[in-house]
Design brief:
Layout (H helix, E strand, L loop, with lengths): L7 H15 L6 H8 L13 H24 L4 H18 L1 H6 L6 H5 L2 H15 L7 H21 L9 H17 L14
Length: 198
């Protein structure tokens, strides 16, 4: 049965639901058109193409994810904030696999610059890390460490990659403990005025 009143927001929301059901890579305009009971061509008045839809889905998912993280870390600092951040990240990644996959795609830098959700993500992440006394370039390095650790763990967990009897939740807690230790004792990188005449 056809659904009247298709809007960009409704279309992206439907894409998010579809991504969680069948996987981000299987989201297509044809599949969405079938959901709305319309022809594929009618969707092009709302999005330019599949890439445009995927970019919008990534921004939607990124906004949802940072909202959860922000709520979790509010009023916390140091290890408590890190654990809350990590927990909210993992919960979202496991509960919404398709949406989460969308957050990992490469976005147009111009689009990111204009996206409030992306700015908020940077503010919250860097704010949490500054509590450890980090400044650039260490902040960027620390962000990359957290992102790669969280993403790798969640991807392996979601794919059934942990076969040992050890509870994955307990291992996750230990990973967070280890990250806290690494951030607390971060090795300082002195890049100032190095020369090549050694």
């Amino acid at each position: 049965m056809a659904r009247a009143g298709i809007t960009v927001d409704r279309l992206v929301a439907a894409a998010a639901e579809l991504a969680d059901e069948v996987g981000f890579e299987k989201v297509s305009l044809s599949a969405l058109a079938r959901r709305f009971g319309v022809k594929d061509a009618s969707l092009y008045s709302h999005v330019r193409n599949l890439q445009d839809l995927r970019m919008r889905l990534a921004l939607l998912a990124g906004g949802e994810m940072i909202d959860r993280i922000a709520a979790a870390v509010a009023g916390r600092a140091g290890k408590e904030a890190l654990a809350a951040f990590a927990g909210a990240y993992r919960e979202y990644a496991l509960a919404h696999p398709g949406r989460y996959a969308a957050t990992q795609i490469r976005l147009d830098p111009a689009l990111v610059a204009d996206a409030p959700a992306m700015r908020r993500t940077a503010e919250i992440t860097y704010g949490m890390l500054r509590a450890y006394g980090l400044e650039e370039p260490d902040l960027t390095d620390a962000v990359r460490l957290l992102r790669s650790t969280f993403h790798g763990y969640c991807a392996l967990e979601a794919g059934g990659g942990f076969n040992a009897s050890r509870d994955v939740g307990r291992s996750w807690d230990r990973v967070v403990d280890a990250l806290h230790t690494a951030l607390t004792h971060w090795p300082r990188d002195d890049d100032t005025d190095r020369s090549d005449h050694a």
